[in-house]
Design brief:
Blueprint: E1 5-11, H1 17-27, E2 31-33, E3 36-38, E4 56-58, H2 61-69, E5 73-79, E6 82-87, H3 88-96, E7 100-104, H4 107-117, E8 123-129, H5 132-142, H6 147-158, E9 166-169, H7 173-187, E10 193-195, H8 204-215, E11 223-228, E12 231-236, H9 238-247, E13 253-255, H10 266-276
Parallel strand pairs: 1-7, 1-8, 2-7, 3-4, 8-9, 9-13, 10-12, 11-13
Antiparallel strand pairs: 3-6, 5-6, 11-12
Helix pairs in contact: 8-9
Length: about 280
């Protein structure tokens, strides 16, 4: 099934998801937006895209509710009296096409999508975040209402970070875009995640111990990775990363900055990986 790449992005309201997604699509011809369904009417400002379609699948309220009853929606919500959501058909269509599509999605939607498509699908999930104080400042500047409840929701969403493949702190848009393009390159198998420390001391028994924890659904420390010259290097948690290869269970990889990178011998790194498969 691994044809297209489906990029799922979550994060608190105001963290900058739509800006990041719009810029990625604007800067990269190979990236498209996953089309959502809505029951609202077509507006004058709804533009036809290059592929000849609107950004939404437009349908009546009755048609949308019919899809809900038939369990054809992956997730949905109601805003201003209109339904918005992602259909399972849209997900399948995107995965069958040899292209990269990106979509902002709720925490619940990410879990549903991974369950629907299974391990054979080429999916990468990214959680976009920022410090709580900075997010609150942005929401105040926007004049956003009901900030207190949004902050409570922020706390809930932060607890779900371990469900994602990557977590990016959106402090600077350009740096975030660079990191996202690194994530996409790795996810499309165009680049490898490289080792950023000496791993010659790692014993297989340590890897197996962490892999057992992962299979038992026990918490492990996240892997820390860094962008360097457009490539992703592990700077901490190599044991955990190798264990994720053995167990087949993804581990959240946080981007970190200002870490000294000492690159291990790449041939040895590949040998370690092959021994864990």
């Amino acid at each position: 099934m691994k044809k297209g790449l489906l990029v799922l992005m979550s994060g608190s309201s105001g963290v900058g998801k739509n800006t990041v997604i719009d810029k990625l699509i604007e800067n990269n011809d190979y990236i498209g937006n996953l089309r959502s369904c809505t029951s609202r009417a077509i507006r004058v400002d709804d533009k036809v895209q290059e592929d000849g379609n609107y950004a939404y699948y437009f349908m009546t309220k009755e048609e949308f509710e019919g899809k809900i009853e038939r369990n054809e929606m992956l997730e949905y919500d109601i805003f201003s009296g209109n339904y918005y959501g992602i259909s399972k058909d849209a997900i399948q269509e995107a995965m069958n096409a040899e292209k990269t599509v990106i979509k902002d999605i709720t925490v619940k939607g990410v879990a549903s999508c991974k369950h629907l498509l299974g391990k054979n699908a080429n999916i990468v999930s990214v959680f976009l975040t920022m410090p709580k104080s900075e997010l609150k400042r942005r929401l105040v500047l926007r004049g956003t209402k009901d900030i207190r409840n949004r902050m409570k929701h922020y706390d809930f969403e932060q607890k779900s970070i371990s469900l994602y493949d990557y977590c990016i702190v959106n402090k600077d848009l350009d740096k975030t875009l660079e990191k996202m393009e690194g994530v996409l390159a790795v996810s499309k198998r165009e680049e490898d995640i490289l080792c950023g420390e000496d791993i010659s001391h790692i014993h297989r028994s340590k890897v197996d111990k962490i892999a057992t924890k992962l299979k038992q659904n026990k918490k492990v420390k996240p892997v820390l990775v860094q962008m360097l010259d457009g490539k992703i290097y592990i700077v901490k948690g190599v044991n955990t990363y190798l264990a994720s290869l053995v167990s087949g269970i993804s581990v959240t990889k946080y981007f970190v900055e200002n870490k000294k990178v000492c690159v291990a011998d790449n041939a040895y790194w590949k040998e370690i990986i092959s021994s864990c498969e």
